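Replying to the earlier thread about multi-chain prediction with a worked example.

Input:
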Amino acid sequence: MSQIVLSLGFGLVTASILAMGAVGFTLQFGVTNLFNLAFGESMTVSAFAAYIAHNDLHSNMWLAMAAGGLAGMVLSLMISRLIYLPFLRRGTAQFAMVMVTVAVSIIGKNVLSAMSGSGFYSYQLPPERPVHVLGMVFSPRQLVIIGLAAASLLGLHALFRYSRLGKAMRATSDDAGLARSVGIPTTHLISAAWLLSGLLAGLAGVALAMDLGTFDFNMGGNFLLIIVAAAVFGSVGEPYGAIAGALVIGIASELAAIVNPELKNVVAFGILVLVLLLRPEGLISGRVQMRAEVAA
Amino acid sequence: MSPALQSYVATLLVYLAVNSIACWGLNLQFGVGGVMNFAFILYQSIGAYITAVLTLPRAAPGVPETYILGWHLPWPLPLAGAAVSGALLALAVGSFALRPRRRDFQATVMLVVSIIAATLVTSEQGWFNGGQGLFAIPQPFSGRLNLGISGYDWFFLGLVAVFAAVVLFFTDRLTGSPWGRRLRAMRDNAEAAESLGTGVRTESLKVYVIGGAIAAVSGGLLVEFIGAWSPAAWGTGETFIFFVAIIVGGLGNNFGAFFGALLVLGVFLELPTFLPTIGSSNTEESVQAAAIGVLILIFLWWRPQGVFPERKHALSRFMPAAAPEPAPGPSQPGTTLSVSDLSRDFGGVRAVDKVSFELLPGTATGLIGPNGAGKSTALKLIAGALKPAAGQVVVGAVNVAGWAPHKVSRLGVIRTFQHTSEFARLTVLENLLAAAPGQPGDSFGGSLLGRRHWRPRQRELLAQAAALLADFQLTELADEYAGRLSGGQRRLVEIMRALMAQPKILLLDEPMAGVNPTLRLTIEEHLRRLRDGGLTMLMVEHELSSVERVCDSVIVMAQGRVLATGTMAELRSNKEVVDAYLVG
Amino acid sequence: MQFASRRRLYFWATLVAASALATGCSSSTATSGGGSQSSTSGNYSVTAAVLHAFTGQNAFFGLNAANACKAAAHQVNAAGGVMGHQLTCQVFDTKGDPADAVPVTNRMLVSASHLVMVVGPDGNDIPSVLPLLEQAKVPEMNTVGDPRYDKQTSPDFWRLTPSDSTQAPALAYYAIHKGFTKIVEVYTSDLSAQTTTGPFRTTFSRLGGTIVKSLTISPDQASYQTEVANALAAHPQAIVGEMDARTAATFLSEMKQQKGSLIPFVVTQRATQGDWAPAVLPAIGAASMGSDIFAVAPALSSTGPAIAGFQQAMTAVKANPFQLKNPIVAATYDGVIAFALAMDAAKSTAPSAYVEDIAKVARPSSGATVVHTYAEGVAALAAGKAIQYVGASGLMAFDPYNTANRPYAVWTFNPDAHSWVMGTALPPDAGQ
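Result:
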């Protein structure tokens, strides 16, 4: 029993990182209708940006985290404006766009590889005493990560419910054509969606690098797998569903590892397959219609 | 040439042939069928593994190598096993990966499968010897033939060339048949194809399975040549190298796929090794790999059709030169359409609320109302594109509520779309032919039977299409790509296409949208003629003048409910209706 | 529609053109490769081809091999070359992919002028490449651990370092010797880890130890917290096993974080490879790295002219300082030198002629002069003596299956010097 509680705690940490990543991924999809398979690389770039801030420029970790978030935002906006938008304006088909994101991912990963010499990097944070909470064990840093995730998701929730921007985003997710006809300035919204998604990618990337202890240019790409699984769980485009997916997958993976560590991979994959077999449009009944056209 | 040089050349050619086979398989899946198989390398790999474990004998005790099967079958049975395994794996993966409607979603799922499979095969030692892989796989006939080193390589090249020829012949036959046309239509616009009778999920699965088998054969041939296979040989990046090859070479074109294999796999990846090293070799490889991404972007931007674009199927020369017969009316008179209590919700809002009406053959009924009244939704519910929450849709005597669109269309319910939905990369003639139901050769089995099987019927259909084209005065556009036409012309193509489908009930979703007044009159004339010929028609339209000229009676909807029914004159004096239009 | 006849013409034309291109390309590279193609006797250099992955996750193996070869060539050429011919190292990248490795090997056989030996390939590529090398009768040297080659019979296969089947018993021996009788074994579920578990378990229990928990973990995970908790819950004295650099960094840092400190970790020679310490050290800190990690890896000569020559040569070719202390690199260096000495002993650079001498020049025998550098070896051979080359990696006696079984030693990491330091050598055949 105590093992289960322990693993629950561990799963919570993974779920926190996963939630930030999955919500970023799914939020951007909801507004832009684009499957961005280069999302992992945004995470990796942000982790490197934080490394430069923390290790090279000797700022504290909070500033480094902010630097990572900023890097994610800038990168996402740049890629969407300089690469995705021109392709969309050119009339590239929706499914060809995912090839474009794959190309961006390939280029990004290899540029990072060349620049980082394919080496491993670490923030080399000082060791901390573990904290025991309700039978679970955390390092203070992990509690910060959980807190960060909670804060950013609460912030998003407030954004959706109370701000015009957030409500407009939800409306555009539901029906872009209708939103446009009601006068919602979708171009601004789309930029906002990319910025938000980039910010979340950045925070998730730095958090992941911190939690792993050491990272390299492959970090984000490897993580993209379970981000997709979490996003699909609750219906792609639906942020609250992604949070649910993150919790389920993060915790289930750790619980499965009690039985057999090799099950970890299979759990996320199994959940993905199950969701697809039962309800291809996601388990949380989709507010988001899977639209055919891609928002520009 | 020295023996070493001969071996080198022969090896390169073997690789070219094997990769061409693989590219033809992927081309069938993606270039023709539109299925973005991001797990492609997995299928080449299962073919390699199964060929290996069927060729090898059972692992000798004491040798640290474990794998399944080990049946030591004679050639070419292992390759047959490979094809079967590729097909079965594709069936299994496709059963869940092809369930989402969006192709990019499908692709992402397949990518995840590919990554997971690599992890599983590496960690499960007992399957295919895990990370170390299989080795010492004997080359076919190597013991029995007494050829020298390079002699054997040329012999093997001959073998592979035979397989390549067979695969090429096979895929060409499939692509050129009516089934190939059906697949290409599905690729261009899955929703429209489905509304005309193509079961998209099933046909996608079929093309996925066939492509999987072909990929597996290429893997089997490769492993028979190199004698070893391990997870290191099938990283996920390999899939995208194949994609680059067919995008660069030309999607939907088998020669393009071959050219792409030559260019990308042969020249692009081999050639840089002849160049001097810049920087560390790690940087160089990163640059090479990044170049794949750059190449994708360049081609998707400037020449998405590739160096050798898909060949145009110019069928106009097969159209009869003689004077066209009168345009085909519905081959049978229309059927009754009876809708009762049809309802559907969207995010808490009742989009269609207990709608009921009945339509008789030989009548045209208008469906009008303010924006957001639920008119298009009602059409989609009838055609099966949306599932109703409640209610019945009775076509003739059959309740089709909740049926898949392609099944509903087979009962003769054909709908046109609000946004033009032509098959852009098919010619106008092909668009029309694609709509004709039940042609010989438009299934996988039928396509294999060859031209003699489907040509006669195709000739008949071409005659029908010719008549339609003449009727709508678009004969000179017969061989134009439908996507290149003007908006009005595309609208006409869509209507002609709907007529080729031999509808019994025709559902028109704003047919006059964006059409100039002269053309409008032409279309109206055709519609009246169809109505008089016995067809049942339901037309959603905002152009009330058109409605007045074509329709016998009109249904008014507002806020999901039927407000009133009657002639335009009656409705004009109905206060409720007038209010709804002003307010809604 | 069937293939139009014009298209068919293009198809065949392209095929012919492709062959012509390939032929043309390769013949032009043969000259631009390493050295001239002139076969007149006299000044031509002989080539040692380094056939390895220089890309992907095993890239550092390739870098190790390349520098070892260059350092050895440096020594050989300084002493006048092989039978008067300069030795050049030429690099061929297999990309770590057994399918890609085949055309690369073919190209190597065509373009390397006067190819006398091949350094490599690594474990991924050997299965597909070895048959080609055997056909071409070119001897190769490798450091692959896979036990499947323990009884191999090809005369062209030479393994310079011990098989994993001896690594595992050595690991068990050391663990017991250090007093760790109650351990948790941890391996990642890929490549070489799989060949070590079986022999390890057998030896460990035979020597009286107990494995309280056995964990096989998947690489590339975001967290190993549960696995670490599992391991700690069994209260072992140490963990023994093998993990790749990234997995080890995450696993060990999470252990440190959960427990507050590390428990001793006895690891295989994988840890001494160039990527491991740079990944793990920052994750767990210098203190833990220095005191809690013990790597069981082949021994190096610690002093003497052999190791001095090796390190001097490596510095001369601008190798990474890590590589100077790497036993695998030293073994490769010794391999190239031994092959060169074999050519001198056979008085021929033809591979078929000198292959038998490879084992001879490294074998201990009464009456053989022990030499520690190439220069010494050449001089002794010139004086008509039989030699035994004992180089930077120590004794390299090939068994009948062409594997050099060597003693292991315990290595610990010195954080200040940023390198592994060899400790006591284990007895030969430790644990077997």
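The first helix of chain B runs from residue 3 to 32.

Feel free to reuse this layout for your own posts.
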